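Need the bound structure for adenosine-5'-diphosphate, inputs here:
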Amino acid sequence: MEKRVFFEHRLTPYLLVAAQLAITLIFFIWPAAQAFYQSTITQDAFGLSTTFVGLANFERLFSDSLYLHSIEITLVFSALVAASSLSIALLLAAMADRVIRGSSVYKTLLIWPYALAPAISGVLWLLLFNPTIGIIAYALRQVGYSWNNFLSGTDAMILIVAAATWKQVSYNFLFFLAGLQFIPRSLIEAAAIDGASPFKRFWTIVFPLLSPTTFFLVVVNLVYAFFDTFGLVHTTTAGGPAHATEILVYKVYRDGFVGLDVGGSAAQSVVLMAIVVLLTAIQFRYVERKVVY
Amino acid sequence: MAEIELNGVTKAYPNGVVALQKVDLKVADREFLVVVGPSGCGKSTLLRLIAGLETLSGGHVLIGGRDVTRLEPAQRDIAMVFQNYALYPHMNVYNNMAYGLRNRKTPKPEIDRRVRETACILGLETMLERKPRQLSGGQRQRVAMGRAIVRSPAAFLFDEPLSNLDAKLRVQMRGEIKRLQRRLGTTGVYVTHDQAEAMTMGDQLAVLRDGRIEQKGSPLEIYRRPATAFVGGFIGSPAMNFLDGRIEEGGRKLRVAEMFSIVLPGAGLPEQEGRNLTVGIRPEHFKINGNAASVELPVELVEPLGGQTLIEVLFGKKIVTVSLDGAIAIKSGDRIPLSVDPAQLHLFSLENEVRLDCIAA
Ligand SMILES: Nc1ncnc2c1ncn2[C@@H]1O[C@H](COP(=O)(O)OP(=O)(O)O)[C@@H](O)[C@H]1O
Ligand SMILES: [Mg+2]
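Answer from helper R.:
Posting the output first, comments after.
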């Protein structure tokens, strides 16, 4: 039987969703429309006159070597964050699965980093890696590596990858742990009797059965690395040194608010929006399907 | 081919549950042993200890004369069929069966030959490409069997493999498993809570209760001479009736439920003179229109099964089940004269439920 609520007045339902609609309109639809509009104009240096230029901003964008460079490092950054946070989380979950099986204390402790704001996670890792006072930088110097994330682009990239990964590991861990506990014990036992080593059991039985979870997490982590890491970059490297960590979300801000290139920045926003739409579509297309194997 | 031997096997789980206590058990080479007992009595634990999926708290497990107590499951050369089948859901039937052979580095042509041969035995030739979720319950059951057979292990272990099937398929599969085991000549341990399965499948039966072996023997031995009241009540269907009894006249006579007396065979039970005990009578051992020793009892309920008629009669304050051959014209409210052959009575001590045998004359 279908359960339905009927309202006396026809306007009541609209009234009830009005607040949500207003928020969506003001904070999502309106800015998105603005971005589309602004991506087709240019402003003079004082912001006094605007000119409609069609797709010129996009043309300029994709012939700008700095922007292409930004795309490249964003891909590297996202791939590194997704790969390392997923593999660390999977390793932890596989170890935890043996020990806890249901105990929620560990799970609660392990989820804490996820509750931190990206900026705070960034500051934490900035301090750890600080070339003069950071404990990790100190340890690296002890083993002969002279760490300096203010001078070396590679070091700066490692820093933001570490910070972004750390924050994401706990989230992935929880999903992996839930996925692992959903796999019947008897499957692993059957494989053990079938002569598979623990390593082999993991790769031939557990990992394939986790693939729906893994796929879901890959998409979530890519979205995170692409769009949720602004605060992190802003508090640690500010895109430097020499654009080495200027990922796409950060470049939007730099070009728009620091460089005051409103048209170019808006065009970048539109590109980012397109990427979100694409990732969401992939998510819906594949992840929503119940059985993948 | 191998015999299996358990010596003083004890298992205490970390939470304090003692699932098995000093179990001694021997399964001869090529024998099919069925371990039967109510749910929670430790059947799965017993099997998992033989398989090496749990570690022992005490005792030893020997397979083919080799002490395997500390060996990994893979090194024990056994195969197990799980209650939920535990088929690998992401692999097709072929790969499910080939998995164990591949892990043991069997040459590819050999794997192919054995998988196809096994599939042929089990009638799975046309399903090799299917995933487990595309199979019916009975077919999954067969694949689980196939996965065990294909490796030709020293022993098969079965953990209630038929309990997820419907009644008809269950009867069919139990015959099939039994035939297969005979044909392959592989030693087998089969656990179940179903006494009919146990009676029909086992060369030998072991009745397990609260982590102890209560009796071991052939199905008919156990049916004819149950060692305890528990075994008597558990094996046989419909279940044995239990009545109160007292030994009288120097052990020569048994007074049943203060209603009638029976002359015991041989010299009776002189040592039990004047003592109360438990009398077990199987429903199929009652006779109608018997001798002078018969009693008239009121019929409460009649269940005609066609080839057999089950009758519930009021025996003093107790309801007693009587099973008679054929269709019999009796209706509830009737009174029927019933008698029992004294040689088919089972007497159990009241204190420890142990069987008491009459002394031969
Ligand atoms: N992993 C376990 N941890 C603690 N207790 C267990 C575990 N497995 C089984 N038990 C307990 O051991 C007893 C025997 O269980 P089991 O061997 O599964 O019985 P059966 O298979 O005959 O139903 C039960 O009381 C059960 O609760
Ligand atoms: Mg069980």
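Comments: DSSP finds eight helices and 21 strands in chain B. The mean pLDDT of chain B is 92.
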